[in-house]
Amino acid sequence: MDTEQVDQLRASLASAFARADGSDLRRELRDFGWAELLLEEPQVAVSVAAELQGRRLATTAMIDDIAEQAASPPAGAAGQPALHLVCPPLGHIEPASHADRDRGVLVLDGVATIARERPHRFIAPVHDDGGLVLVTGAHPQWPAHGSGLESDSGFCRVTAEVALDECDITSGEPAKELWPVIEAAGRRVLAHELIGICAEMLAMTVEHVTSRQQFGSAIVKFQVVRHKLADVRLWLEVAQLAADAAWEDEGPTSAVMAKLLAGRLAREARVNCQQLLGGMGFTWEHPFHRYLRRALLLEHLLGDAANLRVHLGRQLLNDAELPALATLT
Amino acid sequence: MRIQDVPRTAVDVRAAFQRWLHDHADDMAPYRAVGGDLDAVFRDLRSLQRLLFGAGWIRLGWPEAVGGLGGPLVLRAVVSEELAIAGYPPPFSFATQEVLAPAVVEHGPPQLAADVLPKLLSGEESWCQGFSEPEAGSDLASLRLKAVDDADAWRLTGEKIWTSWAQFADRCLLLGRTGASDSGHRGITAMLLDMDTPGIEVRPLRSMDGDEEFCSLRFDDVRVPKDRTIGEVNGGWAIARHVLACERGAAAWQRQSWMHRRLHDLLQRERVLLSEERIGEAFELVHALRLLSRRTVRALSAGHSLGPTPSFDKLLMSTAEKFLFDAAFDEMPDDILFGDDAAAGKWRSEYLYSRASSIYGGTAEIQRNIVADRILGLPRG
Questions:
Q1: Cα separation, B318 vs B325, whole angstroms
Q2: How far is A151 from chain B (nearest CA, A)?
Q3: ipTM score of the complex?
């Protein structure tokens, strides 16, 4: 797709998001031909839609769609019950779900999207006898609502037990190959979504400091204010480049980088924008807190900054060399 | 290398240069550990440059009209990266080539560029950059060194400061005030002058790492022929911006190659003390610089105008460099504080030099101003 086509796509996806306005975005996207777009142009589909999702604080099943696509290309989608990806608990990289062979149950422990439709299925990375396996199955008591700090996020905490003999288990090499693919695809979605959220935080802050006056001058004229905004803008640029670069090799390490740098952007934006929005940014009325909540949640999905850095550092120390990323061609 | 055998794409050049480095490992071996006093270092780096120029590698990505072998600029970035990956230091004027030469090639008189470029690329001569003045650092547009119109020449009187390696330089790309004293960025002209012209006094300043890199220059009625003018008369600000964009972008690419190498060196230590998290974060930041400077190199190579985006590269360069050498310090405090061997001296010197990375080439504050003014477009006071 050339730039013009991507812009057109962005415009029409934006109207689909606007039409749904949070209520039934999934149906709008289905009518839009989302599944086909994801299949044919995954990079354009995810980068454009996930960023829009972030900008509008919309909730979709995008992270499940990409897991579905990675797990069962390409026929599986139509007609099958919706699939929910069970991510490791917030912050973590290692799955906490495990197979309890003595009791014959799968102990699910993680974060997933809420169930809007029934029936549905789940797919979860699971520790089974020391090794990693991928388990798909069904669980009737899946939460239908979010809770806590960001109950509108469309995500919920999942803790449940399911009989192992009612599940499908992918183990061995196929599981070891598939989980990193799903994980990387998920991190790319989260990176683009965080970029959308932070671009909105920055825009609303620029608007605020430009229209508000203190000491007889617009706040934006103070250098310390401009420099904080410049820092947020720097990390926005970096996060954008890293998210795009993660599609070059679609590899696990470049996806970790995309998520890490999007997380760095999110922390910079949360802290600086909130400070510059002053008291207004602390009110319920101002939209900032909604972006803050969503960012806090997404930053912790599929590995927070500390865990991703540990993961990366361990890889470097084990290999005693740096992986070749973002080749200059 | 014959012109018709020259590899033309980044992929081909990468492969061919790797092969050449492998085949010439013996010739190259002495350059792995360049050290000793300043004269010895310069002699070795110059000889390394001559070797690479002779084999054609430093001629790639430069127009044939100035002694190059043609091909896109990106080939230069590939060569510098592979050299760093293989563990060799950057040759004598590698950075100067990326910072100063593009402006001379694109805006200088063609004959001048054809005369001087091969000498710079081959290591036969070196150049320095005469921009900053005692009261015109961050506020470069207020520079005062007078360039008085005298028929077919400019006559220079005034001062320059922070000029790197001016004591060894054969030429200087200099900005002078050709307009009225209050003409700001509209009254500046760029010129390439010979450092052996009578009336130039060079005084090295010892910096905190012990090197005498930076110099202060005094000009007393120095005559520069007008055919040494680079770009338009009173159009020097455009040249300055071009040079600074190259410094903040293309040279930052060389810098990230070198930071990758030094992080790699840290990983080779027998027992690494740094936490996994810190190593991961160092790589995260060096990678971020790579992404920014790669974008700049590609834009330069495609002939696209850069606009203000190299300011991002410069901000990230100092952020990554300081983080990396803070980590190195904590990895080996004994070596950096007490060590007297060459390796310890190198880490110590690089640690200290990294402190300057948010100052030279436009301070971090100036870069933030540029991002705020020209990228965010914030209304100014």
A1: 11
A2: 31
A3: 0.96
φ and ψ at residue A298, rounded to 5 degrees? -65, -35
pLDDT per position as a tens digit, B234-274: 999 999 999 999 988 888 999 999 999 999 999 999 999 99
Q: Is residue B247 among the annotated active site residues?
A: yes
Domain count for chain A: 3
- Going along chain B from its start, the domains and CATH numbers come out as 3-92 (1.10.540), 127-235 (2.40.110.10), 249-375 (1.20.140.10)
Reported as a single tens digit per residue, the pLDDT across B270-325 is 999 999 999 999 999 999 999 999 999 999 999 998 899 999 999 999 999 999 99
Please give the Cα distance from B216 to B235 (Å, whole number). Answer: 25
CB < 8 Å & 24+ apart, contacts of A156-161 = A156/A111, A156/A112, A156/A113, A156/A114, A157/A110, A157/A111, A158/A86, A158/A108, A158/A109, A158/A110, A158/A111, A158/A112, A158/A122, A159/A108, A159/A109, A160/A107, A160/A108, A161/A105, A161/A106, A161/A107, A161/A108
Residue of A nearest to B288 (CA): A238
Which residue in the list B213, B247, B321, B350 is annotated as catalytic?
A: B247
- Same domain for A310 and A211, yes or no, is yes
Q: Whole-model pTM above 0.80?
A: yes
CA distance A91 to chain B (A): 14
Q: Say whether residue B186 is in contact with chain A using an 8 A CB cutoff.
A: no
Q: CA B127 to CA B164: how far, in whole Å?
A: 9
How do strand A98-100 and strand B229-230 relate by DSSP bridges?
unpaired
Burial of A323 (0-12, 13-18, 19+ CB in 10 A): middle
Does A79 score more than 70 pLDDT? no
